[in-house]
Backbone:
């Protein structure tokens, strides 16, 4: 595995005639990230991973400075997972002038976008830069961040970006807790409590399957999440997927998405229910 950090080095290290699978991350790797690499390896000749904690997707009072980082460990994990090229740029490399940024028009005013204004502009800005640099055949994103996937798919369509976006399923702990770099902020007790989130989502999905009204399901899900000790609900939503709009009779996929704040970590999780 080769490690590069400048644009020039990256351009020299990229293969010319092979298919490239790309896995963008913010590091502090776990099995969720590894599953994306596994998918990328299966479908492409060459796998590129980036590790970059992107400042423009963090709000002023968010955890940019204390976001967990461990490059040595990440490097080892990436190597073991079969990454061919690891891109580890600095902020100066990714934002040489910071003169232009991507703006989301629809779908950033709900779910995480509502509580994190500007977050998805930052995400699409960095994804757009990385796509231009890596020019991947396929790029791999986890459904853990279902809103992010929907907005990236929308961006790729609107800008005619020549890349195939691959959605990958959420990897979870045995307890059901979705793997996340931010889980290190949780105490053992909170981890136990946080595992209730997925249980509540599973019950909600079953209710939808049984034909219950989405509004009623949302209320029941809220009530269940309210019972989790030492935490506060940030949002509970049921929206059409991937438009992220209001659920209608024509909706074929529904996203049940939640964010729950624990003392030091805000956790997000979701399930997608496909009709029929
Ligand atoms: P991050 O490093 O948190 O920005 O995540 C990088 C990529 O890994 C994103 O596409 C995430 O959706 C994905 N990812 C993070 N956690 C998981 C998980 N538990 N299961 C599947 N994909 C994940």
Residues:
């Amino acid at each position: 595995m080769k490690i590069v950090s400048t644009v020039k080095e990256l351009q020299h290290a990229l293969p010319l005639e092979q298919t490239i699978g790309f896995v963008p991350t913010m590091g502090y790797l776990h099995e969720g990230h590894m599953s994306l690499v596994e998918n990328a390896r299966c479908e492409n000749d060459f796998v590129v991973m980036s590790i970059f904690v992107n400042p423009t997707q963090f709000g002023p009072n968010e955890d940019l400075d204390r976001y967990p980082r461990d490059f040595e460990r990440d490097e080892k994990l990436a190597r073991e997972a079969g990454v061919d090229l690891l891109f580890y740029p600095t902020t100066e490399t990714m934002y040489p002038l910071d003169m232009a940024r991507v703006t989301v028009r629809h779908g950033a005013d709900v779910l995480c976008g509502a509580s994190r204004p500007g977050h998805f502009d930052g995400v699409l800005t960095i994804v757009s830069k990385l796509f231009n640099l890596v020019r991947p055949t396929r790029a791999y994103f986890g459904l853990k961040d279902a809103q992010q996937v929907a907005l990236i798919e929308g961006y790729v369509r609107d800008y005619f970006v020549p890349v195939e976006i691959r959605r990958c399923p959420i990897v979870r702990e045995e307890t059901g807790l979705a793997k996340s770099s931010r889980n290190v902020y949780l105490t053992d007790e909170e981890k136990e409590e946080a595992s209730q989130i997925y249980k509540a989502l599973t019950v909600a999905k079953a209710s939808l399957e049984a034909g219950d009204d989405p509004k009623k399901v949302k209320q029941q899900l809220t009530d269940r999440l309210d019972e989790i000790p030492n935490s506060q609900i940030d949002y509970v939503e049921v929206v059409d997927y991937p438009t992220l709009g209001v659920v209608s009779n024509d909706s074929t996929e529904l996203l049940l998405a939640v964010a729950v704040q624990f003392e030091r970590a805000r956790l997000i999780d979701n399930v997608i229910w496909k009709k029929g």
About this structure: The longest strand covers residues 232-240. The chain has two domains: 2-168, 181-274. The mean pLDDT is 97.
